[in-house]
Amino acid sequence: MSALKVAALQLAFSDDVQENIAAVADLVREAAGKGARLILPPELFEGHYFCRTQDEAHFARALPADRHPAVLAMQRLAAELNVYIPTSFFEADGHHHYNSLAMIDDKGAIMGVYRKSHIPDGPGYSEKFYFRPGNTGFQTYRTPLGTLGPAVCWDQWYPETARSLTLQGAEILLYPTAIGTEPHDPDLDTSRLWRRAMIGHAVSNVVPVVAANRIGTEHGQRFYGHSFICDERGDILAELGATETGVIVADLDLDQARRHRAAFGFFRDRRPDLYGRITQDI
Amino acid sequence: MSALKVAALQLAFSDDVQENIAAVADLVREAAGKGARLILPPELFEGHYFCRTQDEAHFARALPADRHPAVLAMQRLAAELNVYIPTSFFEADGHHHYNSLAMIDDKGAIMGVYRKSHIPDGPGYSEKFYFRPGNTGFQTYRTPLGTLGPAVCWDQWYPETARSLTLQGAEILLYPTAIGTEPHDPDLDTSRLWRRAMIGHAVSNVVPVVAANRIGTEHGQRFYGHSFICDERGDILAELGATETGVIVADLDLDQARRHRAAFGFFRDRRPDLYGRITQDI
């Protein structure tokens, strides 16, 4: 067995950028201290989840990767600790704005930027106001640890995202997230649905999944945590509750997952000739 | 609320065709007596799960729908009880053989035949010896109850099947199954994975799922039951264990599911332009 130690971080955020980056850095150090080589912070950890409202002032936060404080800080930290840090950030590219992820390698270099493909919109989650739907397509990153398949929050509900990443070679799926209560419906707790969708992706693609969510209450919107790491059969290896701050670490055996994936035969028996409806825009 | 009462049947089978059909008919009557309008028996209920071995004698069982004893019996029963019975059967069509499903309406007519698209192969499940991969594509059936989306066993592991059926209008997914222990690996119990994959489909597509599996031990191969009905959020509404014979019935609210599906926005936010990899045969 070649164990890969991975980690997810869960914490609450304020509107103080430097304070948030420092809090994430502390947990990254803790995870690295426990031996994690791949460490996933939550989505858009630089500040409050600003998509709760539609306010043009928030566009001031968007910057290119090479000037974004969260990305720059994680690059320095990754180089220092020799860890991979998939880093979610609000990206500006000329007139366009994206909900993006910089894949930072263990030398602190940016391997590439993925732009969130699926953009939600609903009470408390007005992302379509801020983010253009991503134009990068799904991106996988070959590393000595294995091939990494990141996606961002809303992407995590889409079987197409998980399948596309796995078909492109992903051996582990990574989902930074900011999700919580639904202001319009206090009875709707989507946390169990959120896990079910991703555990379904794990099983259907025979691939481990790491999900990192924020916690805390921001202007009445409560983020529900429940960050987890599961293996290629969907068994939970490590998890956090709705209010705990902290780090979860788990050992993944990607060689075993590869054998399981081959023996199940799901990919062998696919019928691409029958899947045309999935790519039709109707 | 317009409640649709649906049922799944779970039982063991012998090699006596008439006995098996009679046992299924008894449970169909029980389900209809409880008010179910749509009643799902397990896969290939006419006999033992013959795919455990490769034996040309079993091809004698394959018949066209209009001459197959299981289909004919369910047509009579559907007409008598005014219920829909999606009926799995071993179909012969000239030189070809398929693992098929006849959608029988509440007048006893065959609305159409779906041929299982994904054919497994592995120790104890030598289906590739018997069944040609289906050439019908995924089929949905519009009925006064709602639009039905049937698939067969191995299909149930595929996100593509569930998504394609839902995109084609399915408001409920139906999976007749024959699955159990893995003879080559006594430690591998796939029953929890089996449920996770389908519950993932329910959540990702915001659609209820009905799954009917067989039980009993056949020549050392134990079928693990765990038939269930879940709603569009993946919450289990009714279920059976690994050894119980019986009927489960649940009320589905397809209008509510339609509202949930719209409000989640999963279909609104799809990116067919990015899903090309899913249909590439590479």
Overall description:
2 copies of one chain form a homodimer. With 282 residues, chain A is an alpha+beta fold. Helices cover 24% and strands 27% of the residues of chain A. Chain A contains 6 helices and 14 strands. Chain A has helices spanning 17-33, 69-81, 127-130, 159-167, 191-205, 254-264; strands spanning 3-10, 38-40, 85-93, 96-104, 110-115, 141-143, 146-150, 172-176, 209-212, 215-218, 221-224, 228-230, 236-239, 246-253. Chain A has a 6-stranded mixed β-sheet, covered by helices on one side. In chain A, a hairpin with a 2-residue loop joins strand 3 (85-93) and strand 4. In chain A, helix 1 (17-33) runs parallel beside helix 2 (69-81). The longest helix of chain A is centred in the first third of the chain and has 17 residues, at 17-33. Chains A and B meet through helix 4 and helix 5 of A and helix 4 and helix 5 of B.
Map the helices and strands.
The structure is a homodimer of 282-residue chains.
Chain A: E1 3-10, H1 17-33, E2 38-40, H2 69-81, E3 85-93, E4 96-104, E5 110-115, H3 127-130, E6 141-143, E7 146-150, H4 159-167, E8 172-176, H5 191-205, E9 209-212, E10 215-218, E11 221-224, E12 228-230, E13 236-239, E14 246-253, H6 254-264
Parallel strand pairs in A: 1-2, 7-8, 8-9
Antiparallel strand pairs in A: 1-14, 3-4, 4-5, 6-7, 9-12, 10-11, 12-13
Helix pairs in contact in A: 1-2, 4-5
